[in-house]
Structure formats: C-alpha cells, structure tokens
Amino acid sequence: MGLLITYIKSLLLTESDPLPFVAGDKMSRLSAVDNAWLYLSGGKVVDFGSMQDGRLAEIRETEPGLQEISAEGKLVLPAFCDSHTHLVYAGSREQEYTDKIMGLSYEEIAKRGGGIINSAALLRETPEDELYEQSLARIREILKLGTGAVEIKSGYGLGTEAELKMLRVIRRLRETTPLDVKATFLGAHSFPVEYREDPDRYVDVVVKEMIPAVSEAGLADFIDVFCDRGFFTVPQTERILEAGISHGMRPKIHANELDFSGGIQAGVKYGALSVDHLEFTGEEEIQCLLDSGTMPTLLPGASFFLGLKYAPARKMIEAGLPVALASDFNPGSSPSGNMKLVMSLGCIQMRMLPVEVLHAVTLNTAYAMGLQETHGSICRGKKANVIITREVPGVDYLPYAYGSDLVDTVILNGEVEFRTDLDSNDI
Ligand code: NIG
Ligand code: FE
Predict the structure, then answer these.
(1) pLDDT score of 111
(2) Does any domain span residue 177?
C-alpha cells in the first residue's frame, strides 16, 4: 500500500538528476522543497512536490486507500546510511573505558592483550544464536535512531571458523531485519596472540585460508584491513587486498587512525570504495584522494571516545573532496551507532556545517557502501527509506540539539518501522 506524507515543513536532500556523491562546496548547498508532499509506493519514492502544486488530488485518485501522514512542522529526510560499523560483537568493554580514563592509550590496551583481542576471545565462546540476538538488539537501537542501511564488519573472530560465524550472523541480520545490510570481511583487524612473533604467518592464513572460505560461502561484499602503526603494514595490507580483489571483494579499509600509515595511498592504489578514519591526513594524502573515486570516511565518534585528534574535514572539503561520516559502532572505540550524534560531532569538532554533515551521513555514506543508486537522497525511483522528525525549527536544529531524540517516525521500504508514539520491538 502507498503512503502519502503531506504538509512537510521541509523535504530535505531532494534530487532530480541524482549525483553519486557530493564534494567540496556542493556539500553546503542543500536542495529542499518547503511545504512539501512525498508519495511512496511499491517500496520506492514515486514522486514529491509542493503542497501548492495541485497534484495531490490526482495521486489520491490513482491509488485509493492510500495511507496519509501529516508532517506539519516536521522535516522529512533520507534515512541515515551508516557505512562503517562493527556492530556484531559479544559483550562489551567498559573495563577498558575505565583504563582509558586512568590514562592508558588505545595502543597500550591492545598491547596488553586487551582491545580487539579481548572481544575476539569472548566472541569465540559465544554461541552463534546468542551473538545474533545481541547484535539484533543493536540493529533495533539504530533503526529507532533513523538508520536504514548499514555496513557491518567481521574482525572479532581472527580465525577462519569464528570469522565465518560473524559473517553468517551479518547475513542473518540482512535476512531478518528491514535494514539494508552490507558485509565486510575484516580478518586483518588485529594479530591473534599466537601469531604475535610472526605476523606474516597470520597474513598467510588470511590470504590462503580465510579469503577463499569467505568467498566460497558468498558471505562478504567488501574486504577491509586495519592498516596502521602497530597493526598491519602497507605490504601486508597490499597482499590481503590483492587476494580479496581476486575473490571479488572491493576494498574499504581502516587507515591513518594512529599515524601517517600509508594506508590512504594503499587504498587509492587498489581502488578502495572508501578509506576510513583518516585522523592523520596531510597535503599528500589529500592530493592522492582527489578524483580517486575513493570516499574519505571520517569517524568522529572514535576520536571523541578515545580522546584522539579529529580528521581534518574542513581542509578536505576546501580542497574539493567529498567527506562521509559514519559511526564506527564497536565495543572498543565507539560504542554508539547514533548518526545524529555523529552529525553533531562533525559540526562541533570538525567545523562542518549542518548541511555538510547531512550530506555526509546520507548520500556520501550511501556511496561508501555502493548504495548510491538506491539510497541517500529523496529521488524518484530510489528506495522509500525516510525519517520524519519531531517538530523542529529547521535543518540546523538537528545537529544543534545534540542530546535530543528528534526522530519521530522511521519508514523503510515504504513501511512504517518505528513511530515514537507506537514504540514496539517488533521488526
Ligand atoms: O574502527 N580501528 C580499528 N578498529 C575499530 C576498533 C575496534 C575495537 O577496538 O574493538 C575502529 O575503531
Ligand atoms: Fe572501524
């Protein structure tokens, strides 16, 4: 059944000639229709226009029994696309949170066998169904916060069986929830303790055993490597990317979070869809990213939570680059999938404008997960994935009111999946 949303205060991020992403000064130009209507049917955006254009009678006639929602005083925007998460994990790591407050760094915690290794040990002993249930609760949480498409990485298995287990859970989340889910194989997230003395042997396992097994089972769209100081080197990263590419997985990599690691250049060289984190980005890295087709994806939640510096978003935009912002939802460096909070961090900590962050969490993240043709903007023929906000003064209010829950209704595939006044857990 179709759905007609009427009297929308402002319908944000409308497109007639869809762009794959927005870059540079285009990021601050918002296309919107005030006092608008939006017609969704068959799971897609059919049409939109202004309440003054006199076309509603015709639409009501074409589809009798159309459900109508009035959005007076409210904004309608594309559902968030979160192109970088690790939301399949077991348990939590608040002990390390306290360690960090007491002065230990992320790298020091990792060296002590904490961090990713800690999550991997717990994940290995967690039954698959239990892992699914824990992850499903996180999916429900982000759906209510307005996320409609999400990329989820493996990487807490660090062994063939456990990595496959994670990827099967990701596939099950795709099959059982209304979100669009992309899967990324991140076997090269850290070195398991038993390989610490000979890390190249672990790279052998990733290349010769894990990648063929993942590909054989058809469980991953993308391949990722944590290319950074103390983790995987550029030569190790390149070996893994080559193997992933030869098995049909496009790279999307972690780079330059802890140092100028060469990860950005390696990502661009191998045609990565995105390079993510980028706290350490200089002139050379910016030049390398220009016209590359690789989306620079920044994760301000991780900088906030670890107390690290923020990626130079302003410099990137001024150089003409696109910028995407994702949550990095994971137990160690960003235990939150709240994309509206990510928008606020982008504004406050990275000096991005509210309209820039809106593009960065929708269209640009859709591109960073290969979904730009169907997601990320209000465009005829794209998926009917939209958020209706509560009554707000305007678009700038969304990141400004950084602690307020302003999501009133979430519509995915044209179906109302969440409404504040009918809060239920059934998805
Ligand atoms: O993106 N940087 C590497 N991986 C994750 C952190 C994972 C963890 O600490 O559990 C990240 O921040
Ligand atoms: Fe990450």
Answers:
(1) 80
(2) yes
